[in-house]
Amino acid sequence: MFYGDYAAALDLMRPYSAPDLFKPDSPMIAGAVADGWLPELTGDIITSATSALAVAPDLAAAYFLRGWAEYLAGELTPQARADVAHAAVLAPSDALITQGADYVAFLAAAQSSGPAPTVAPAPVALPAPTPFVPQPGPQATRVQFAPGATSATVQGQLAAGAIAEYVLRASANQWMMVSVYSPKDDVWLEISGVQDGQPLLRAALGQTTWSGVLPGTQDYLIKAVSMGGATSFTLSVIIPQRIQFAAGATSATLTGQLAAHETDEYVLRAMAGQTMTVAITAPNNDVLVEIYGIEDGQPLVRTVMGLSQWTGVLPATPDYDVKAVSVGGATSYTMKVTIQ
């Protein structure tokens, strides 16, 4: 509904029969996010669908959704009956819409003063819904990491209520961290897989950061959604390189290149009680180490401490984020990680 895709919204209802949908404890409401927010939900649907139908009066899904919302908002008004019936006229081959129209006609007859049928129309078998897979728009920008880099940052401008789309290729089981900054914190993130359609984060949750393990190797669609006025924003995407020890080894050595004041990120799995040492060397000693637990966010060492080497006993068994942070100009570096 937020994006005006009424057909996709209707697809969410297809697993249920019309008698299930048109009842006070509809499975679309009871136990869902909308539970306790029925007046707000129905009001938003009615307002949105009315605006859409003023522009595109042949949207059968919008008529059906508006009639459904009108019914749940109060009672079976003539407007609710007319909306669902008109949806069936526009989409006579849609099993859910036609079954809904038949059931609403039954309800209307049951509450009229005339003879009322005693048995509701039998639900018909509905076809399985076609999954809604979000696709990047023609203006989507592909995010490319520089050679050897583990992060990328883009900046942009958004008009009020506008959306900027970005596409990024990543592999299954990689960690990805995404954040968006705007002066008033009114730009929110939405992330989903392009090929499998799996949502990782929805804009309606109002979040400006997300981190997690990616479910598949595919393109990922990242949206920066303005929820306020015109604004600037900065989007950051980090995919740390995973450190792997050779069989039987207790250490690994990595080399890299950093631009001035940039960061390379690595992820490493270790066990609680183990001792980890990270040592970074650079020609001008201007690459510092920062380490924190990815899952619990607990910092072990911060760059403000000015350390290029750290040793400590690990407090837990999560993945750890190990950063090599340039505090000077462009430089090369070598990082040795030891776990005992």
Task: Provide structural commentary.
By secondary structure, the protein is an alpha+beta fold. It folds into three domains: 6-111, no CATH class; 141-238, Sandwich (Jelly Rolls), CATH 2.60.120; 241-339, Jelly Rolls (Sandwich), CATH 2.60.120.380. It has helices at 6-11, 18-21, 38-55, 60-73, 78-90, 95-111, and strands at 141-142, 151-158, 163-170, 175-181, 187-193, 199-201, 209-213, 218-226, 231-238, 241-242, 251-258, 263-269, 275-281, 287-293, 299-301, 309-313, 319-326, 331-339. The strands form four sheets. A five-stranded mixed beta sheet has the order 1-3-8-5-6, with no helix packed on it. It has a five-stranded mixed beta sheet with strand order 10-12-17-14-15, with no helix packed on it. α3 runs antiparallel to α4, α4 packs antiparallel against α5 and α5 (78-90) runs antiparallel to α6.
Key terms:
21% helix, Jelly Rolls, 3 domains, 5-stranded mixed sheet, 340 residues, alpha+beta, single chain
Strand pairing plus helix content: what structural class? alpha+beta
End-to-end CA span: 54 Å
Secondary-structure element sequence?
A: HHHHHHEEEEEEEEEEEEEEEEEE
Alpha plus pi helix count: 6
- pLDDT < 50 runs, ≥5 residues: none
Strand content: 25-35%
Radius of gyration: 27 Å
The helix content is: 10-25%
- By DSSP, the count of extended strands is 18
Using the alpha-carbon principal axes, give the shape. Answer: elongated
Average residue-wise pLDDT = 87
Number of folding domains?
3
Strands of the largest sheet, in order across it? 1-3-8-5-6
Please describe the biggest sheet, giving its number of strands, its sense, and whether it closes into a barrel: 5 strands, mixed
